Amino acid sequence: MQNITRQKFLQSTALAGAALLLSSLESFAAEEKEKKLRVAIIGCGSVSNRYIPHLQRSSLIEIVSLCDIKYERALEQNKKYNVNAATYPHIDKLLAGVPFDMMITTTNMQVHGELNKQALLAGKNVWSEKPMANSYAEGKALLDLANSKGLRIWGAPAVVNSPQFAFMSKTIQEGKLGRPSSAHGQYGHTGPTWSAFFYEKGGGSMPDLGVYNMATLTGLLGPAKSVMAMTSIVNPERTVDDKGKIKVEAEDNAHILLEHDKGAISHVMCGFNFFDPHGHDAKGQTLHSIQIYGDAGNMRLIGYDWEPLGVMLDTSWTEPAKLYQESAEGYQWQEGATKIGESLVKGIEPRIAVEHALHVLEIIEAARASSATGKKIILQSSFKWPMV
Ligand SMILES: NC(=O)c1ccc[n+]([C@@H]2O[C@H](COP(=O)([O-])OP(=O)(O)OC[C@H]3O[C@@H](n4cnc5c(N)ncnc54)[C@H](O)[C@@H]3O)[C@@H](O)[C@H]2O)c1
């Protein structure tokens, strides 16, 4: 950690000669380097193309290792982004290799839980892509393990970091919508084409896509008390890059109802069979994907919650609805690992909370149980709310 402040450094260098300036600069740089959080990325596939450059832009983080069981991918990403990291073909070698402080898990969803556990057992903090485990029980055990070892674990997504989320949360908390009653969120596209795991058991449109809306709606309306859902498979066969023709085993279509406190009900719809001419990156989207109604006003989030483009707020019987928060001011959906890493260095508590990720994981599991049994499922988890 850094011992001298920038101000002291500048004061001392102003008084000293060129030799001192040079040595001070060197020691300052060394201290800055020491202060950096060393991270290792496991899983060098599609999403690592968003994570690596974002992490590289942070002055507080250094990527020291890259790992992938398809080892050539770790080598390729190391070269493509000029990372200059150590590379490994297996987590055992990664954990025994170059020391680091936090593991960033961006592998197939199904192995997140076991990899995160191994990292915690080896004394590493963890940022995990969603879901952080395959079940709520597995995720909760990871959190307990982290707590018992004085470590931290967090799970994606980072939607609560956007200024649009903050604006919507504040609007609700200030009572501008009156009593919040009903909300809807939707996210879908025609499905990833590169990897089979999205469609295999433990995959599905809920942990890949619905997870964003679940985080947003519970983040805005509070923890859900119960869940009812219907899920289905619309397209039973797919062709993907890594395995060719495959059978779809996980839901590619899901509707989830959430019961919040004080009578508020929200609905999430997500799927891999949603035609959207705006594509995966939602460029040029003018329609809303989130809507929230109260008895004194309503709000619509333009674009997706992970790529927000503005919020329409309507609270008047006579005036037209107004557009707010057209800029995301630096927020990017892939920022989770960077922001968490920076919060560890600075010693500040981030808005993203592991209990929230766990709550969303329990919702996904409950939605599957509800769809299978036709029953309403009561939830046990919660998180600190309101978030803004
Ligand atoms: N691709 C995106 O745009 C995107 C966006 C947001 C979140 N995500 C999430 O990121 C995660 C990865 O998605 P992706 O699209 O990058 O998938 P991908 O298939 O492109 O990459 C996953 C990589 O993980 C590697 N891997 C699998 N098991 C491993 C193990 N045990 N040890 C080391 N490496 C292993 C695979 O070889 C592969 O290279 C998923 O949780 C997904 O939901 C992806």
Reconstruct the topology from this structure.
Blueprint lengths: L5 H10 L2 H18 L1 E6 L5 H9 L4 E7 L3 H10 L5 E3 L2 H6 L5 E4 L6 H10 L3 E4 L7 H13 L4 E3 L7 H11 L6 E9 L16 H17 L4 E7 L4 E4 L3 E4 L5 E7 L5 E7 L16 E7 L3 E7 L2 E8 L7 E3 L11 H11 L7 H20 L3 E2 L10
Parallel strand pairs: 1-2, 1-4, 2-3, 4-5, 5-6, 7-12
Antiparallel strand pairs: 7-13, 8-11, 8-17, 9-10, 11-12, 13-14, 14-15, 15-16
Helix pairs in contact: 1-2, 6-7, 7-11, 8-9, 9-11
The structure holds nicotinamide-adenine-dinucleotide.
Nicotinamide-adenine-dinucleotide (NAD) binds next to loops.
Account of the 3D structure:
The protein is an alpha/beta fold and 388 residues long. Helix content is 35%, strand content 24%. It contains 11 helices and 17 strands. It has helices spanning 6-15, 18-35, 48-56, 71-80, 91-96, 112-121, 136-148, 163-173, 205-221, 336-346, 354-373; strands spanning 37-42, 61-67, 86-88, 102-105, 125-128, 153-155, 180-188, 226-232, 237-240, 244-247, 253-259, 265-271, 288-294, 298-304, 307-314, 322-324, 377-378. The strands form 3 sheets. The protein has a 9-stranded mixed β-sheet. α1 packs antiparallel against α2 (18-35) and α6 packs parallel to α7 (136-148). The radius of gyration is 22 Å and the shape is globular. The two termini are 30 Å apart. The structure holds nicotinamide-adenine-dinucleotide (NAD). Nicotinamide-adenine-dinucleotide (NAD) is lined by residues 42-47, 67-70, 73, 91, 106-109, 111, 115, 129-130, 194-195, 208. The site of nicotinamide-adenine-dinucleotide has 23 residues, from loops.
